[in-house]
Each structure stands twice: as structure tokens, then as C-alpha cells.
Specification:
Helix content is 42%, strand content 22%. By secondary structure, it is of the alpha/beta class. It starts with a helix and ends with a helix.
């Protein structure tokens, strides 16, 4: 068993497809298949159930994957720690978030203060964020819902009100407040399942004994504002957006308990966090916790 075979196994486990894993690793499919077969022979147990090039982790593979990810994560942390101590890098930090709009301002001010630090951003849903964090692909995640899994540390930010956005010509435009009853029969522009907005909407409508009617699913939450402004439907948007100038919508407060989002800054609790990542974590928290002027 060697490090390369473990990385090959991790990639195949992630894709559950030989050819896709081979493409990511830039190796020939037969070579990858032989490497996995040798690993299984050395372990004395099959790691996958096979259906052609499609493979599925079995219970042995799932158990082994948890150990492999932990081991590879420790090795990567060690490499980064030594490189930093030896002064071989100016530092880097990688961050995942549901939407990158919230990160533009903090990243801009951070780079201005620390031009030698590289910043890499990923737009991801909660499931992808948890995976990237477990695998050490990112240092930090800014998420509006809890991440599944153990071993995560987090800082929970104060709850932020979520407002109802309607087009200027909508029947509710001009009002300051609305109730759930006002939304009966309204079409809703929102995010796909798995995003916090969708979960919040379904929770609010279930509590009111109503069924939401979706007209649009957009992965980029802040694109919903323009769709609402065009009259496609109503939207549920964090109050942060209402502070932006020139948005083509009218804003109302929704009189419904739980119409809010709670953001979390999450990291791997026992993993090594580089000086650059620690610095960015403190910078981002300071930016997010500073009241809007």
C-alpha cells in the first residue's frame, strides 16, 4: 500500500466511476483499475461493488475511506505546516460559500492588507462544502445551514432577517409588511433543494398549512432579485441585499417566525489551519460582525 494508491482510491470513491476518476487523475483507465485491484488484494477485501466502469463503495470501502481521508488530510496538513515554518510560501487560503457575493468585500480588503496571500474561492452547496472541508480542499466554509459530519469547528453569526422581495408592480408593492396568508397562490423564485432558502421556505409554508408554488430554481441566490424584479415571482432574500442600491424590487417584512438565516463560519477542528487561513478567518469574522453603516 502506497500513498499514490490511496489517492487513486479516494478519487474513485468520490466519483464512483473509473473513467471519471481516471480523467481527474490524468491516468489511463486500465492502470487505475489495476491499482485499485492491487490495493484490494493487499487489504484482503473488496472495496467496491462493480457494474462495468460504474462502481459503488461497499461497506468495507466506506469504512476504509474514512481512514484514508483522515490520513491524507494529516499528511497535507503536515506538508503545509512545514512549508509555512520554513518560509517556503507566502501563504494561501481557500474558502467555499453558497454565494460569493458575501465574500467580495472581505476578500478585497484582505488582499489590500495582505497582498502576498493567495485567496481561492469555491461556490458550493452544503453537501459539497462538507466534502471539500473533510478532504482538505478548502480551509473555511461560509454556510447558511449546518454542515453534516463530525470534527468541524464553527462560529455561529447573529441571525439575519430575510425579507420578501416583490416586483414594483406587484399587488403587495408599497406595503411594509406581509403575512403568510398574503402569499397563498403566489409563485416563488428560489434556489434548488439543498439550499437554505428552499429549506426555510418549505418550513414556513408547512407551518402555515400551505404548499409553495415554485416558478424558478436558481443556483445563484442573488440572481433571484433580478428575476423577481422582472415579475417572474416573489423571492425571499436576506436583508443584506436590501442595503444594495438600484435593485429593481420592493421589500417587505414577512410576519412569520423563523424568516431568517443564520450563517456559520466552519473549519476542521483538529486539522492544522495555516497562518494565512487563521488570519483570513479573523478578518472575515470582523467584516461580517461589523454593523452596516
Amino acid at each position: 500500500m502506497d500513498l499514490l494508491s490511496l489517492r487513486y482510491f479516494q478519487a474513485v470513491a468520490r466519483h464512483e466511476h473509473i473513467s471519471r476518476a481516471a480523467e481527474e487523475l490524468r491516468v489511463a483507465q486500465p492502470s487505475l483499475s489495476r491499482s485499485i485491484a492491487r490495493l484490494e488484494a493487499g487489504l484482503g477485501a473488496p472495496l467496491f461493488d462493480r457494474q462495468g466502469r460504474r462502481v459503488r463503495l461497499n461497506r468495507f470501502g466506506a469504512a476504509f475511506l474514512r481512514r484514508v481521508e483522515r490520513a491524507l488530510g494529516e499528511l497535507e496538513d503536515g506538508r503545509r505546516e512545514l512549508a509555512e515554518a520554513a518560509g517556503l510560501t507566502k501563504g494561501s487560503v481557500s474558502v467555499a460559500s453558497e454565494t460569493l457575493v458575501m465574500l467580495v468585500g472581505p476578500v478585497k480588503s484582505f488582499i489590500a492588507e495582505h497582498p502576498g496571500v493567495g485567496v481561492r474561492l469555491y461556490q458550493s452547496d452544503a453537501e459539497a462544502m462538507a466534502r471539500r472541508l473533510r478532504e482538505g480542499e478548502v480551509d473555511l466554509c461560509l454556510t447558511s445551514q449546518p454542515l453534516e459530519g463530525s470534527g468541524f469547528g464553527e462560529r455561529v453569526l447573529p441571525a439575519e432577517e430575510v425579507l420578501l422581495a416583490v416586483s414594483p408592480g406587484h399587488r403587495l408593492a408599497g406595503r411594509t409588511h406581509a403575512t403568510m396568508a398574503d402569499l397563498r397562490g403566489e409563485r416563488i423564485a428560489t434556489t434548488p433543494p439543498g439550499h437554505w432558502q428552499r429549506a426555510m421556505i418549505e418550513r414556513l409554508f408547512a407551518a402555515a398549512g400551505m404548499e409553495p408554488q415554485y416558478v424558478c430554481e436558481a443556483n445563484e441566490a442573488y440572481a433571484i432579485v433580478d428575476l423577481v424584479g422582472a415579475g417572474l415571482g416573489v423571492g425571499f432574500i436576506p436583508a443584506w441585499s436590501a442595503r444594495q442600491d438600484g435593485l429593481p424590487v420592493s421589500w417587505l417584512r414577512l410576519d412569520a417566525p423563523g424568516c431568517e438565516r443564520v450563517q456559520r463560519l466552519v473549519w476542521r477542528e483538529q486539522a492544522y489551519l495555516s497562518a494565512a487561513a487563521r488570519l483570513f478567518r479573523e478578518h472575515l469574522l470582523a467584516e461580517l460582525l461589523t454593523p452596516a453603516g
